[in-house]
Write a structure and sequence with these properties.
About 40% of the residues lie in helices and about 20% in strands. The chain is of the alpha/beta class. A five-stranded mixed β-sheet has the order 4-3-5-12-6, covered by helices on one side. α1 crosses α3 (about 35-45) and α5 packs across α9 (about 270-285).
Length: about 325
Amino acid sequence: MAAGMDWDDLRLFLAVARAGSLTGAGRALGVRHSTVLRRMAGFEARLGLRLFDRGPGGYALTAAGRELLEEAAEVETRLVALERRLSGRDQRLTGTVRIATLGALAPWLAEALAAFRGLHPGIRTEIAISHETVSLARHETDIAIRISRNPPDSLIGRRIATLVHGIYGARDRLPLPPGAALAEAPWVTYAQGRADLPQARWVAANIPDSQVVLRTDHTGMLIQAVRAGIGLGLFACYLCDADPGLVRLRTLNGLGFDLWILTHPDLRDTPRVRVLMDHLAAALAARQPALTGQMPAMDRQERGEGEWTGSAD
């Protein structure tokens, strides 16, 4: 690489360019905003170039920055591919495996990992919990557990289950009398930043905007709002069926998203990745009744669940 430039410099530059801000870059790299600012300033000073224009809208690439971005991305692709190939040749059942997953699955994963530790004590795990995309191609993680309609063709893995969704209300504080139309109830749903989710799209298509009384980008907050009786909400059944404070009013099939466990082809034969992926896939597959909304009949009766008798419109 050119004098004054190394891989750490380029990795920092790519993070700022992709995030458009120091805060976003710091979050991606796991360092503080002030550290990104100091290191970026040092990198520009060593190059004698300004790579970003700083403005109220964030960090925008200069002409020199755009030129470097193209080259740096190619360097990253080559280095990450080499790293993956070398990692794939490590045949030991030891080392660290990184997992990117959803917060809602944390209780199930913790239980599965406890059993896994007893089988393979030499394998450690690092877990990133986020609904944001984590790149397997850039080797930001080894295994990704994600909800998707069609995972990228460049990844391999298996579909665990097709998710079933339901409309939920507070068990003891339903915001609408039985027999009334669902569209007449107050509703909670996702904010604009997550409007692409199937639940948000269904609400937008079927519930008048005037009936939406709360929006947020956080699933846990939406569920808490429904439990408090603020409004009805639409969620994957595995999130709510075990909650005694909620009742499923209607079941919705066919929203088109599945739960997948994925990895990169270069890692498919790495023993520590393969055995952990197989273990987690089996543990999640055992949760099929919850993922597909098939709670035992007795549990549903004890919770007083029944289909809503009113209309949806």
